[in-house]
């Protein structure tokens, strides 16, 4: 199995401009399930954990090359919130995007927040994250 080029860890340059995108109502995100959003040509997997915490990372599974992480299974490993890819079952840290089964691999993460009085979910893309 090969790893796609998006699997490398990318750091945001200081001062990178961010643009926030409205994704959905907070209530529309089912706890422990993911949803996929297309933002300026970038597929983003958005998750609402059981405790209500929001996470956003690339929807691209770097091991299979398929855009499927939003369909992954949420869980924890040693207290770390995770998503397991539905393809080959690699587990990714939802906070950092690092693969816990192969720490050399990571998927990009994105800032996510509740806006408009907490009813709306927004995800940001920085200039360096746009395709």
UniProtKB/TrEMBL annotation:
InterPro entries to which the protein is assigned, alphabetical: NirD (IPR017881), Rieske-like_NirD (IPR012748), Rieske_2Fe-2S (IPR017941), Rieske_2Fe-2S_sf (IPR036922)
Recorded coiled-coil stretches: none
Superkingdom as given in the UniProt entry: Bacteria
Domain Rieske: start-end pairs: 21-121
Keywords: 2Fe-2S, Iron, Iron-sulfur, Metal-binding, Nitrate assimilation, Oxidoreductase
Pfam families the record matches: Rieske_2
Protein name: Nitrite reductase small subunit NirD
Protein source organism: Actinomadura violacea
């Amino acid at each position: 199995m090969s790893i796609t080029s998006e699997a490398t860890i990318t750091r945001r340059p200081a001062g990178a401009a961010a643009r926030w995108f409205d994704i959905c109502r907070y209530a529309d995100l089912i706890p422990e399930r993911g949803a996929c959003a297309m933002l300026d040509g970038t597929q983003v997997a958005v998750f609402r954990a059981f405790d209500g915490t929001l996470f956003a990372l690339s929807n691209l599974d770097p091991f299979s090359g398929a855009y499927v992480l939003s369909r992954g299974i949420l869980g924890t490993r040693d207290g770390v919130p995770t998503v397991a890819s539905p393809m080959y079952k690699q587990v990714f840290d939802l906070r950092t995007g690092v693969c816990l089964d192969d720490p050399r691999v990571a998927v990009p993460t994105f800032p996510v927040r509740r806006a408009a009085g907490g009813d709306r979910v927004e995800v940001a893309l920085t200039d360096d994250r746009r395709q």
